[in-house]
Design goal:
Length: 278
Amino acid sequence: MTHYRPYFSLQVQHAAVPPGQNTGFLLQPSLACAQQLRNYRLVLKPQTNGLRLLLPLEMDGQPPIPLPADLRWTFLLQLQDPTILARTQLDPSYQPQSLSVFRNEFLAAQDGRELTATRLQPTDPDPPADLATLSPAQRSRLFGIVEIEHHPAFTLAEPQPYDFTISFAVREQVWNYYLVVQKGTSFEDFSIKDKENLIQFTLPEIATEHDPIAATIYQRFPESQALVLHSQTAIACRARSRPNLQLIKQGTTKAWIPHLPNPPNCQAIQVINLLEEM
C-alpha cells in the first residue's frame, strides 16, 4: 500500500505583511516541473504564500519510482500584486525584467533553510530554459525562479520535512516633505508633528534650485519658495498610511493640516502646495 509523507515545502515571507496574509507572491511549478511531479507521482499542495510536496512511499519506505540523484525541481515565483515591490528592500542590482534565481544549498544536518538568491539581468547570455515556455503575460509577472536540488535525505523514512523559505525585508527610506509657500515666508513658521511621537522631522530649510524637486517647483511657481523637511530616521514602508501626522504653523491654535498625506512608498517624496492657503 502506498502512503504519502511530506517531501519538502516552499514558503514566501515578507516583513511588511502580517503572518497568514497574502504576500503578493505566488509559487507555481514550471511546465517541466509539473511533468516531473506527474512522472514521480508526487502530490503538490498549495498553501498560503507557498506550497508543499508529498512523496509517495511503498511499504518498504521507498518511493515507487526512484528519484535520480541529479533531479531538480523548478518553480516560478510570480507577482500577484506588483505594488508589494514598492514596500520591498530589493537587491541593488534589481531592474525591471531582471530575474532572481533562488537555490537551495543543502546542509545535511540543518532543517529549515533560507534560500540564497542570485540576480540575472535581461542581457545575461544564458537565461533559464524554463523562460522559453512562458507567454509574454507570464513573463511580465515573473519575479524569480526557484530551483530545489533533490537530496537523498529528502526521502528518509522518518525525517522532519525540509522547509525552505524565501524572505523579503521591508523597504525603509527617509521621508521628504516639500512645502510650496510664498516667497519670503520664514522657514521657522512650519513644522510637522506626529501625534504618536514615532517620527521626528528636521527643522524646515529652504530648498535651492540645485534640488531637482525644488527646481521643478520654482519653474512651475516662479514667485514661490520651497521649504523641505526630512524625517530624522528611515521609515518602514507599509500598505496603510500613518494617520497621525499634522502640519503645524506657528501662531495658530489648530493644526494647519490635521491629516498630512504620507509620501508614496515608491519615492518617499510629498509636495504640499500652500500658496492658496496663505
